[in-house]
């Protein structure tokens, strides 16, 4: 499969991408821990099969100090012992919020209650927007067939400003 389009080389695509990145920057600056944000984005990206985003979030998490073991176990977080209860609640929300079409209830009341136990309202607002934004980014990456492997940590830091 060849990449269909490099949106950053298209004038309108680059303009829209900059606005999109600004939303991501607002979420990054929220009180939701940055390392947790990367884990959530990595899990949604794995589910959606976005190679570019899996590459991006794996490398950003590693650059931020995340361990190789935890990164490797994100896809199997339910069957591991390396995540906190708060991280598990956020990962469950990410999965259920990503797989809306697969579940008649969307995000379950049980998952919502677990999230409420561990996060305050500002963190939950950031988490909800994070799940929505990463899913949108995954769709952009999959539709344009952006390939993983070439991302370098910090590559888009200037774009978001």
TrEMBL record:
Pfam assignment, any one: CMD
Its domain of life reads: Bacteria
SUPFAM superfamilies hit by this protein? AhpD-like (SSF69118)
Record domain Carboxymuconolactone decarboxylase-like: where: 16-96
Q: Which residues form a coiled coil?
A: none
NCBIfam families per the record?
Answer: ahpD_dom
User: Protein name, please?
Assistant: Carboxymuconolactone decarboxylase family protein
């Amino acid at each position: 499969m060849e990449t269909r389009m490099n949106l950053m080389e298209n004038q309108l695509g680059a303009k829209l991408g900059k606005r999109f990145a600004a939303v991501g920057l607002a979420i990054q600056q929220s009180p939701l821990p940055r390392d947790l944000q990367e884990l959530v984005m990595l899990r949604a990206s794995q589910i959606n099969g976005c190679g570019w985003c899996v590459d991006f979030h794996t490398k950003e998490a590693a650059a931020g100090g995340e361990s190789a073991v935890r990164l490797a176990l994100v896809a199997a977080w339910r069957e591991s012992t390396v995540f906190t209860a708060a991280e598990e609640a956020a990962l469950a929300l990410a999965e259920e919020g990503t797989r809306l079409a697969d579940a008649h209830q969307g995000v379950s009341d049980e998952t919502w209650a677990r999230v409420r136990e561990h996060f305050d309202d500002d963190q939950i607002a950031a988490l909800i927007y994070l799940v929505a934004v990463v899913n949108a980014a995954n769709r952009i990456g999959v539709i344009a067939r952006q390939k993983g492997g070439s991302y370098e940590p910090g590559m888009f830091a200037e774009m978001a400003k």
